Amino acid sequence: EIVLTQSPGTLSLSPGERATLSCRASQSVSGRSLAWYQQKPGQAPRLLIYAASLRATGIPDRFSGSGSGTDFTFTISRLEPEDTAVYYCQQYGYLWTFGQGTKVEIK
Amino acid sequence: QITLKESGPTLVKPTQTLTLTCTFSGFSLTTSGVGVGWIRQPPGEALEWLALIYWDDDKRYSPSLRSRLTITKDTSKNQVVLTMTNMDPVDTATYYCAHRSGYGASGTFDYWGQGTLVTVSS
Hints:
The complex is a heterodimer. In chain A, about 0% of the residues lie in helices and about 50% in strands. By secondary structure, chain A is mainly beta. In chain A, the strands form 2 sheets. In chain A, strands 2, 4, 5, 6, 9, 10 and 11 form a 7-stranded mixed β-sheet that branches. In chain A, strands 1-3-8-7 form a 4-stranded antiparallel β-sheet, with no helix packed on it. Chain A starts with a strand and ends with a strand. Chain B is an all-beta fold. In chain B, the strands form 2 sheets. In chain B, strands 2, 4, 5, 6, 9, 10 and 11 form a 7-stranded mixed β-sheet that branches. Chain B has a 4-stranded antiparallel β-sheet with strand order 1-3-8-7, with no helix packed on it. Chain B starts with a strand and ends with a strand. In chain B, about 40% of the residues are buried. Chains A and B meet through strand 4, strand 5 and strand 10 of A and strand 5 and strand 10 of B.
């Protein structure tokens, strides 16, 4: 089983700042099969990024992803108040596993 | 427009079997590449993938829960059913079903149901 470790656990930033989230895999993720989801309280997760760096339909370009192998990064270039949420990485190269999440708080 | 909705009991007793149904619309589970998966989330905790069934009836299970899970589909009713045996209080969670994309964002869960909270308690 591929274990995903996300850091930091919580990120507290001001509107307009840049948020950088990390996701590290216990073994190489094949084919850059890494996705990022946003989950707001009381809601289902929403797909933001797939194939490590491709934005899902309708996702604003302030959200971006990069990385390959075992190290992946998710960036929100300019934080907006509505970006307050928990963000999960997920690998789908072999079965599916999720990271433990990073909570992004807007000051 | 793709939609999914979970249904089933909100409360089950320890040792009982949980049966959840995912009823979907806007896609067919006979289309190549498409799948429906189940994911759960204990209160305040992270997401955990449980099982997935493909259009061709191929099935995948979480290794840690494989012995307790069964996933089936009824394409005529546009439904996917998940059963989990020997329920325990630690299985208390919101259970989601989700559409596994067969193209574009292939392999990811691009549409999700609203989730259903299942509590395990005597």
